[in-house]
Structure formats: structure tokens, C-alpha cells
Write a structure and sequence with these properties.
182 residues; mainly alpha; two-stranded antiparallel sheet; 6 helices; 2 strands; elongated
Amino acid sequence: MTSLRFSQAAVLALALIFTVSGCAPGGSEPKNSVNGSSAAASDDGTTTPSPTPTVMTDKEAAALYLSSACAANVPSKVFNDAWANPNPDLATIKQTAATTRDAVAATAKTLDEGRWPAAVKDDIAIVRDSDFAQASILGGIASSSTLEQAFQNQFPATDPASAASQRIRSRLGLPADPYQGC
């Protein structure tokens, strides 16, 4: 039973790499975006329309996506190695889960705030929401008191974010390998 649990854990840990590997749902409009209909009052009492934020070019989007994905993928690999270890160490799993949680949450926030090109906007939203969910799971692992408690936290075996991250990479001209370029 133990070896089955650890093999399932290894498969699920690999799902985390491919999910986060957007390098890692819903609309991808930034939560704090300025919309073109906003207006600000000037000192002379007239209103001046707020500038409309510009959408990133594909090149800008590729650079931001790659740097964000790499920021999450590097610690995710370390976590996955600890998680899939046949002789797991609770302290290592907790520490790597906490580090990965923080990196994945930061990546999700970056994805959420970007003004992405239309070709990747919907897929960015899928990866972003998956990253927020992964951060939650990793938080549960980081706060576990025992290995059994840690392994009760499960990552989805399949996740739409895995396919979305590969579509993003393809559309932005990035390599399919989530570690290439990191």
C-alpha cells in the first residue's frame, strides 16, 4: 500500500510540474485593471479620461510568461523530487512545499495582472487559476504535522492547465520543455 501511495504521489507530483510549467480558469482580465471609461478629475475641474492600458506584444508576453513560469518551475522541481522520494522526509517536504507555494502564488498574481494578447488570454486564465489552486494544496502540505497528513493533500491527476500552458508556449514561440530557458 505504501509503494502504491508513493507511486500515485509521484504521478500527481509530475502533474504539478506540468501544471505550473506554464513554463505551470476564468477570464484573464486583471483584477485591478484600469478600464478606458474611467475618468479622473484634474485640478481645473475638468475630467481627463484615464489611459487605456495596452495589451502586451507577443514578445513581451513570451518574456513575462517565461520568467514567471521559471520562477515557479525551479522550486516546483525541487518539491516534486522531495514529494516523490521513496524515503520521504517531512521537514524537506514541508520546506519545499512552502517555497513552491510562495513561488506559484507569485506567478499566479503576475499572470492575473498582465494585459495578455488575445491569442493566449483565455489559456493564461486557466493556468493562473490552477496556480492559485496549487498554492492552496501546497499550503496544506507545508502545514502538515505528519507524512500521512502531507500525503492526504492530492494534486489533480489531470488538469486543463497542462494543456493550456503548452498552448501558450506554442502560441508565444516558447519551447515546450518547461525548464528550457530557465
